[in-house]
Amino acid sequence: MLQRFDLALQLAILRQAYVNASLARSSLRSVNTNVTQLLDSLDTVPGSRSVLEFKGQWYATSISVGENAIPVSLRTLVLSGTPATQHFVLGDTPQMAVGLPIPSVSASYFEVFSLDDESRILGILALALIGAAMLTTVAGASIGRWASGRALRPLAEVSRAAETVAGGSLDTRLIAEGDPELSALASSFNRMTDALRERIDHEVRFTADVSHELRSPLTTLATSLGVLESHRDELPSRSRHALDLLSAELHRFQRMVDDLLEISRVDTGSAELSLDEVEVGELARRAAAAGGAPEVPVDVDPAVVGVRLWVDKRRIERVVTNLVHNAEQYAGGVTRIAVEPGSDGGVRFVVADRGPGVAPGERVRIFERFYRGQAAGQRGVTDGTGLGLSLVAEHVRLHGGRVWVEPGADGENRFVVELPTRDHDGAATAPPPGPDHAPEVKAP
After folding, report:
1. Which of 3, 89, 281, 360 has CA atoms 20 to 30 A from the CA of 406?
2. CA 316 → CA 29, 389, 397, distances in Å?
3. Same domain? 258 vs 298
């Protein structure tokens, strides 16, 4: 009975921790998430405290239980990507800690549960059962072994399923046929995953619908603006200035809507690659010309001269275009474009600019949606939408490649796009692992 009580308690603790980890992962995908408010909003049982490691920073709901309160062995295991639990003592009080990695958002979630009340209950139950246990030792051992094995099987299934959901597979379901003890949990677990998937799908559809519906009024506005611009010389100076501001903002709005539509197609899985076989040097020169940088030198390493790739030329040209525009807006323009050999037979396209270099803490974040580094929130500093580099990451991801930024000579930035070689069916034949500091391109 004590064993079953303890297992049921651990099952409830694990379930709560996995639910909160899934909710945290969903919230952290949003732009500018307030991590403190996120932790406060999580549904926790009395006596539990939440701790979150997010991109190297630690956050906690309690001052007394933070990063240092979690055992080093548990922290090391979870930060390396392995879910784990551990019992330990904190301030003479027994605790149970559950740690769950959330790799899709570069975070790890910990929940620490106080077992003080449960320990007292278990102690009372133990004293009450000692007398009966002495008379039924042999039979109890056999029954206990059978019961523990039966109880651990569903717990292992729940753990595996919850880990899969935490990794982003929302199609995972628990099947509890013939097990009445697991059926309630399986039903709750399945409802949770259905609710999570419905919420995510709703957000994706909402973004796509709003972006689509905005195109019609934007077209009308653009037409009306064109009429006004045709009579620009007839307007007074202040009106012309206002018209120029309106034109710039409208064009920026149109680019944002077009980018949102492109991103929504990726999120809904409707984005498809139209592959063509091209020579890497020709691809780089065409992309530079399409990106508005035909005068920028394109250096092709002799080791990749003549190498041919299967790529969607429109998307790769959009990648280079966005990198060129990013350099013009933030770094004084592009200095050179290079094609270099990548790892495992892949090819790297490098777009270098005049800097200043991107801070180490922003080299991953600049590929997030609407993140514009130090320029974010400063209206008028740039006409960017904050979606250009996130679209670069999405297009590269669709090709099975990687993108990152690294420092170059004299403080320049090197934006590196590494693409694998592909066969005629578009399947990657040499997926490049990239350097250790290069962020993997993943869907947000």
Report:
1. 281
2. 25, 13, 11
3. no
The CA distance from 170 to 251, in Å, is 38
Residue 204 lies in a domain: yes
Distance CA 255, CA 138 (A): 76
Say if residue 410 is exposed, middle or buried (CB neighbours under 10 Å; 0-12, 13-18, 19+): exposed
Cα distances (Å, whole numbers) of residue 6 to 96, 98, 122, 178: 12, 15, 8, 23
Using CB atoms within 10 A of its CB, is residue 73 exposed (0-12), middle (13-18) or buried (19+)? exposed
Q: Domain check: are 327 and 400 in the same one?
A: yes
Enclosing domain of residue 296: 276-419
- Report if residue 174 sits inside a domain: no
Each residue's pLDDT, cut to its tens digit, for the chain (444 residues) gives 445 556 777 788 888 888 888 888 888 887 677 888 888 887 777 778 888 888 888 888 887 788 888 888 988 998 898 998 888 888 788 888 889 898 888 889 898 888 777 667 766 777 777 766 677 777 777 777 766 666 666 667 777 777 777 666 767 777 766 666 667 777 777 888 888 777 767 766 776 677 667 777 888 888 888 888 888 888 888 988 888 888 888 888 887 887 887 887 777 677 788 899 999 999 999 989 987 888 899 999 999 999 999 999 999 999 998 999 888 888 888 999 999 999 888 999 999 998 787 888 899 999 998 887 665 444 444 566 778 899 999 999 999 999 999 998 777 889 999 999 865 554 554 433 333 333 444 332
> Is 337 found in the same domain as 246?
no
pTM above 0.90, yes or no: no
Residue in 251, 225, 253, 250 with CA at minimum distance from that of residue 240: 225
Residue 439 is assigned to a structural domain of this protein: no
Q: Domains in the chain: how many in total? A: 3
**Domain final residue, candidates 242, 267, 292:** 267
> In the numeric block, which tokens belong to residue 402?
């990687």
Instruction: List helix spans (H) across 63-136.
Output: 72-79, 116-135
Based on the fold, state whether residues 260 and 129 are members of the same structural domain.
no
CATH number of the domain encompassing residue 208: 1.10.287.130
Same domain, 159 and 308: no
Same domain, 389 and 283: yes
Of 267, 295, 323, the domain-final residue = 267
